Amino acid sequence: MITTFTENDLLRYLYGESTENEKTDIENALVCDSELEAKFFDLKLDSSMLDGLFFDPADFSLDKIFNFSSGYQSGS
User: Does the predicted TM-score (pTM) go above 0.90?
Assistant: First the structure.
């Protein structure tokens, strides 16, 4: 039986969210399918690049959030 894996399946595998059966199936498929392996390594590279990014909101955005929240009255 041929099993096809989606990018979603590969991402779940990459982040350790696959079941044991899925993990085994994906690992076997990566050995046999060079196209799947290439897609997996692209996702792995993308993931490592995202991990290196630093997100810093603009002061304007923070001011808007703080201004909004200061006018918010708690219902408690």
Answer: no
